[in-house]
Structures are given as C-alpha cells and as structure tokens.
Amino acid sequence: MNEEIMVSTRNLKRIFKFGETEVFALDGVNLSVRKGEFVVVLGPSGAGKTTLLNMIGGIDRPTEGEVIVDGSKITEYSIDELNSYRRNDVGWIFQFFNIVASLRAWENVGLALEFQGQTSKSEIKERAFELLKQVGLEGKEERFPSQLSGGEQQRVAIARALVKKPKIVVADEPTGNLDFVTGQSIAELMRDLNLQEEITFIVVSHDLNITQYSDRVFHLRMGKIEQIEEQPKDNQSKLVGEEIN
C-alpha cells in the first residue's frame, strides 16, 4: 500500500443555519486517505456522510477547516479552480446512477470527456467503449438506460467516473438502490478497479456488506469520526449481511 496521502481533512466543520438554530453536519472531522486506498465511511442516515463527500469532491465549502487533495488545499481554490478540479480530478458515483436517459451507454460515459474539452467524437467513443468493456458491458454500448438493468446502469456510471482517469473516485451510497446480489457485484467491481487502476476510492454507505472490500473503515456519527477500523485482508471474501439502522 502506498503510504503517500491523497486526501486529508483538518478540523473540518460544516454548519447549516436554520433561523437561529445551528446544525453541525460535520463537527471537526480529521481523516487521511492514502493513495490507491479503498476506504468506506460508514454511518447511519444524518451522520454527515454525504456532506463529507461534498467537501472532498469540491461541491460544497466547509464552514471551517481544510480539505487537502494530492498536496493542494482545495478549500482555498477559486470558483474556476474548483470547476477544473471537479471536471478533471474527481469521479463521482451516485446512488441513483444520474445517467442521461436520452443518451446511449457510451454517450453517457463520453460526457465526462466532453466536459474536459475533448472534441474528437471517434476518440471519445473509443475510450468509452474501452471503459464499458472494463466494467463488463461489452456489447451493450449502444443501449439506452431504459434497456439496461439497475446494476448495468450503475456500471455505466462507474465507467463514466473512471473514463477521465481521475485522482479520486467518490461514491455516495453506490449500492443503496440495488438488490443484495447486484450490490455485491458492484462493490466487487469497484474494488477490482481500485486495485487495477490504483485510483483512490472513498465510498460512503450505511451498508456493512461493502466494508469487506475496503482497506479501512471510518465510522462517522453525528458529524464526528468515532472510530477508524483497519480491515483484515482475509476479510475480503466474507459476507457480512448486515445494515446499520
């Protein structure tokens, strides 16, 4: 495992105000994620998991504290720098896939390259086909989302996240909208790609099953990291079959 740090947060706080009431979505989160690591942030609904991803992914800014990605303080970025960071350095995977219904599978994947400014349709298509093959969708590149199962749509979303060769992939409940068996296959796929591509994965979930594929688990509750758990290597093949309520 590479010991170089890819992502770190320092005293990260995000406070939302509702009238005179302050809600601490994050309350002093400190964590470090190594390059090439697969980590899971585990916690119940309302723990602050998505807020933490939004900070790391550059979608939202903290009230206090720092987010450092590959040595750069993204919390000090300008709007243009943040746009470039999101476009080039971060691959997103969402619970509800967020793929465009009117576009074919390869076109959905190719969108990430178009947003980067690539204009050669043939090169975009070639790269998209390459990634769809890598995620097990060879032969289904021309299908629309309505012609794909939920698990296949999530595979399209994973290919879209990886096609631009990001520094990190952040996944928000990537198995939450899938049945158990399909969710397991998606978790296995993400772990395989993490190992093959050596891309850092940060996955938030309330599903304990996904932790078996991780290097470490950060337990988040009420905006605070309560525990950091190293995963034993012989745990990779054991199903857990539980959820946090």
Question: Mind explaining what this structure looks like?
Answer:
The protein is an alpha/beta fold. The protein contains 6 helices and 10 strands; from the N terminus they run βββαββαβαααβαβββ. It has helices at residues 49-56, 79-88, 105-115, 121-134, 150-163, 180-197, and strands spanning 5-18, 21-34, 38-42, 64-69, 72-73, 90-93, 168-172, 200-205, 216-221, 224-230. Helix 4 packs across helix 5.
Characteristic terms for this protein:
245 residues, alpha/beta, 6-stranded mixed β-sheet, 4-stranded antiparallel β-sheet, 6 helices, globular, disordered C terminus
Short description:
The protein has helices spanning 49-56, 79-88, 105-115, 121-134, 150-163, 180-197; strands spanning 5-18, 21-34, 38-42, 64-69, 72-73, 90-93, 168-172, 200-205, 216-221, 224-230. It is an alpha/beta fold. Strand 7, helix 6 (180-197) and strand 8 form a beta-alpha-beta unit.
Q: Which geometry do the CA atoms define?
A: globular
**Side-by-side strand order of the widest sheet:** 6-7-8-3-9-10
- Rounded to an integer, what's the Rg over CA atoms? 18 Å
> What pattern of helices and strands is seen along the backbone?
EEEHEEHEHHHEHEEE
Helical residues, percent: 25-40%
